[in-house]
Specification:
Layout lengths: L4 E10 L7 E8 L4 E5 L6 H8 L2 H4 L3 E9 L2 E2 L5 H5 L2 E4 L12 H11 L4 H14 L15 H14 L4 E5 L7 H18 L2 E5 L3 H4 L6 E6 L2 E6 L1 H5 L3 H4 L6 H8 L20 H12 L12 E10 L9 E9 L3 E6 L5 H9 L5 E6 L2 E2 L5 H7 E4 L12 H11 L4 H14 L15 H13 L5 E5 L7 H16 L3 E5 L3 H7 L2 E6 L2 E6 L1 H5 L2 H6 L6 H8 L5 H11 L7
Parallel strand pairs: 3-8, 3-9, 6-7, 7-8, 13-18, 13-19, 16-17, 17-18
Antiparallel strand pairs: 1-2, 1-4, 4-5, 9-10, 11-12, 11-14, 14-15, 19-20
Helix pairs in contact: 4-5, 4-6, 5-6, 15-16, 15-17, 16-17, 22-23
The protein binds adenosine-5'-triphosphate (ATP) (2 copies).
The site of one adenosine-5'-triphosphate has 20 residues, from helix 1 and helix 17.
């Protein structure tokens, strides 16, 4: 059988780049295979994806060497329209993908393309909306959805459309842990139903591996450096060497000095052998860990009293009756289900939208400050980088806030370069933003806020779409700022980030603050985990699997043992 996707000695150079982004790619993918495309940020994963759906060379122009055949069609000879019947794509940046006035229309769009009958269409849309928990949103405009809800709508659009090749570019990036898990199951289900060829580009590889994957193709610096089944790859150190995080339970086994070579199947916790020696080693390792020192509490910085918001009168309150105090020096995670009101809360604190109730910063009513004054006290990094970027060049984007504040150019240069280095963007300092990958763009927006060093920084999913190396660099930088007294608040769906870095968690569900507690306590309460659509980490499952005395203690020991300052 001929492969459905064939790259032969394929290289691609974007017109605006001096060097090729993809170098000598040789890759065959067979019909019905499920492939995980992994690799660090900017390595060329999305560029490979763009070849499969024809954006290269039809929209993104450049030099092609070698050949790329998609379902037998040479991409240099095929129009975007023709390829659209072969490949369905969920883009990394789902915002740019919406066409319909309502969520329902949008999901139906790919079906209308295929001239389906109306009743049929409604049935299919209803089915997938139900599967993805979108039924209540079918009449809402896609532009007003929360980040995770947008992602789910884009996903529904791909799932309804039964193309032979389904390409998912970071499908999990904005999803809450429970929705992320469900999505992976849905992708698996649809693949089996229609025997589709599935390609998933994702940094969250542990979550993708929750269902069977045939092969992991690892890309680094435009080249394929591994193309093998997940089990083989998990036994090697190629993932970590390329800056991609291997699953937590695999890392925990290594920490406890367990020889991975003796474990025949590493692809899931449940497949690990029931071996008392492994259990002993894990238990001994846990017992040797010591507790870190308790934290001191700072004075109150921000207080919210009965805070809420309603975007329009027809809608139930997406956020209401929030009462909380944030102390100076806190490092907080905001977690909870998609659409729970987390971003709405951030918008209120930053003064982008009005609020019911009262918000006070160091005892003063925030309503008395202008947006510019607020921005000097509270920096906000939005979820979608494209909504924040206004300049053409990277340097100018990061310098903008300083220029608006009349800082002299020599100091600007100094501070911008320092921040760009921290964010791993220094080599790109003279580049236009348009030539960056999505993950790189996100880092530019973080840099633009960090450079101002406000007292409190709120980041909406700063690590979504980032590779592990960058993730560790950004998080360690934030931890440094925190240790120097800055107050940091992060909206995140990453349970490991919450556990490892933050000291306090606010959990939201259906517009309400349902918990204000420590991360470990939050994840040990099954009712809260369910209500807020969270998920326990695989470390917990590992401890359960081997009947360790205290699974939560094991998770805590692991988290405390991570050497925070080293980017591994
Ligand atoms: N439209 C474009 N024009 C010019 N160069 C581009 C364009 N898109 C991407 N590139 C370059 O190609 C490289 C690879 O980008 P790509 O988006 O394929 O990476 P990626 O592996 O998907 O990264 P990420 O995980 O950050 O999304 C980047 O370094 C970027 O500079
Ligand atoms: N401009 C708007 N107009 C109407 N409704 C909106 C608007 N923005 C958000 N909403 C709705 O308010 C609710 C809360 O959205 P919000 O963005 O605060 O959620 P979130 O907790 O940040 O979600 P996610 O984890 O998916 O980012 C959602 O149901 C969303 O559809």
């Amino acid at each position: 059988m001929k492969p459905i996707i064939q790259f032969k000695n394929f290289s691609f150079k974007y017109d605006s780049q001096a060097d090729p982004t993809l170098k000598n790619i040789n890759l065959d993918i067979n019909k019905g295979e499920k492939i995980l495309l992994a690799g660090p940020s900017g390595s060329g994963k999305s560029t490979i994806g763009r070849c499969l759906n024809g954006l290269i060379p039809n929209v993104d122009h450049g030099d092609i060497q070698g050949t790329c055949l998609v379902d037998g069609k040479d991409i240099t000879q095929t129009s975007l329209f023709d390829l659209s019947f072969t490949t369905s794509t969920i883009l990394q940046d789902s915002d740019s993908q919406f066409i319909g006035m309502t969520v329902g229309e949008d999901i139906a769009f790919s079906l209308e393309n295929d001239c389906r009958d109306r009743a049929d269409m409604q049935k299919i849309v209803a089915k997938w909306a139900n599967e993805l928990g979108l039924t209540a949103l079918l009449k809402q405009s896609p532009q007003t959805l929360s980040g995770g809800q947008k992602q789910l709508v884009a996903l529904a659009g791909v799932l309804v459309d039964e193309s032979p090749i389904l390409l998912f570019d970071e499908p999990l990036a904005n999803l809450d842990p429970a929705a992320g898990y469900k999505t992976i199951q849905l992708i698996d289900k649809i693949q089996k139903e229609v025997d589709a060829t599935v390609i998933i580009i994702e940094h969250r590889i542990e979550e993708v591996l929750a269902e069977h994957v045939d092969r992991i193709v690892l890309v680094n610096d435009g080249e394929i450096i591994a193309n093998e089944n997940p089990n083989d790859l998990l036994h090697e150190d190629k993932l970590e060497k390329a800056g991609v995080r291997s699953p937590l339970y695999v890392k925990a086994l290594s920490k406890a000095d367990i020889d991975l070579a003796q474990i025949s199947d590493l692809t899931s916790v449940s497949a690990l052998p029931a071996n008392p020696e492994i259990a002993n080693k894990l238990q001994t390792w846990e017992n040797t860990q010591t507790d870190p020192k308790p934290e001191k509490e700072g004075s109150v910085l921000l207080e919210l009293k009965d805070v809420g918001h309603q975007y329009n009168k027809r809608q139930a309150h997406p956020l209401h009756d929030v009462n909380l105090k944030i102390n100076k020096g806190d490092f907080i995670s905001i977690v909870g289900q998609n659409g729970a009101g987390k971003t709405t809360l951030c918008r209120i604190i930053c003064g982008f939208i009005s609020n019911e109730g009262k918000a006070e910063f160091e005892g003063e009513n925030l309503a008395n400050f202008s947006i510019k004054e607020r921005a000097e006290k509270i920096g906000y990094v939005m979820q979608d980088p494209n909504q924040m970027i206004s300049q053409k060049m990277i340097f100018d984007e990061v310098a903008l806030g300083l220029r608006l504040r009349n800082v002299n150019e020599a100091e600007i240069k100094d501070r911008v370069y320092k921040t760009l280095k921290i964010c791993g963007l220094y080599p790109f300092r003279n580049w236009p933003i348009s030539a960056l990958s999505f993950g790189q763009k996100k880092r530019v927006t973080i840099a633009a806020i960090l450079v101002l060093e406000p007292e409190m920084i709120i980041l909406d999913e700063p690590t979504a779409g980032q590779d592990w190396k960058t993730y560790t660099e950004i998080m360690n930088f934030l931890r440094d700022l925190n240790e120097r007294g800055k107050t940091i608040m992060i909206v995140t769906h990453d349970m490991h980030l919450m556990l490892e870095y933050t000291k306090r968690s606010f959990a939201f569900a259906n517009g309400e603050l349902i918990a204000d507690t420590t991360p470990i306590q939050l994840l040990t309460d099954p009712t809260l985990v369910k209500k807020a659509s969270l998920r326990r980490t695989s470390l917990f499952e590992l401890a359960k699997h081997y009947n360790l005395d205290d699974p939560n203690g094991f998770v805590k020991a692991y988290i405390d043992s991570e050497e925070p300052r080293e980017a591994k």
